[in-house]
Design goal:
By secondary structure, this protein is α/β, with parallel strands linked by helices. It has 11 helices and 14 strands. It has helices at residues 48-55, 77-81, 99-109, 114-127, 143-155, 173-189, 199-205, 223-228, 245-249, 276-286, 300-318; strands spanning 8-19, 22-33, 37-41, 63-68, 71-72, 84-87, 161-165, 191-196, 208-213, 216-222, 234-239, 254-259, 264-269, 290-295. It has 2 domains: 8-228, Rossmann fold, CATH 3.40.50.300; 234-295, Alpha-Beta Plaits. The chain is elongated, with a radius of gyration of 25 Å.
Length: 319
Amino acid sequence: MSNPHPEITLSARNLTRRFGNQQVIHDVSLELKRGEVLGLLGHNGAGKTTTLQMLTGCLLPDSGEVDICGISLLHHPAQAKAHIGYLPETPPLYRELSVDDYLLFTARLRGMKSAAAHEALAQTRQRCGLESTGKKIIGTLSRGFQQRVGIAQAIIHRPDVIVLDEPTVGLDPAQIREIRNLIRELGDSSSVILSTHLLSEVENVCDRVEIMQHGKLIYGDTSAHMQQHGNVSGFIISLRNPPPLSALEGITGISHVEQLTATQFRVLHKPEDNPKGTLLSLSEQHGWQLEQLTPLQATLEDVFVRITDAETAMAGEAK
């Protein structure tokens, strides 16, 4: 079975899942393209782990379909799973084995012949920074190195789709930086989907974002566009010799001025009517001595809170 859209490595359509009487995943659909790192972002308990378990075939959806490289995960699970590498939130490690023995074991589980498994082991150890740990027992390694071994078992068979559930949780800043660099590199040749509640992870690693809340996907866009979502139109200005506040408020196009300090102001304007040029001209004419003009930009945290709060408010109104 060949994939009619080779650039699409994962396609999920209308996934739902119940636990008992409670529906926890509601009609989730998403696509992943080759060479793309997708961040599944949401608060703890939003449904991220359950969704990833369905995308990897570890949990059957109550309804919906998943295709991996054009192969149905429901109807041809073994073929589809051959294209998946999965790191659960708790890495599936045999702590009593050495790193080399464990990774060779996982390669053979993936159906690799002995020679190919040893070749893949050498490449994967180098890729994950595990060259010096091959003979060490996994249980004696630091949390960061155990996480690397977890990623190594997910990629040793060179899968097209790599799924990582909270890959940097519990790591120190240096370990987080190294794991993020590895994820970014993996995204050059494979497709990566990772769940996280860390906004810095999205900013540093992901090309695209899907926000999940209460088991639903409520927002999807590129990371760059997400950062621009709902941005306020305006800027911060510093004037060494500022005029009265009323003079600034009277400039055409300015909708609001807030005085932050004796010389610094927060200026808002309508998106279609930028008064920057007029402000620069008046400053020069009247000797206001403009020292700073910095456009306002919302942080990812601002955007995330704005999107999730808006969804919560809409859900409350619908009840």
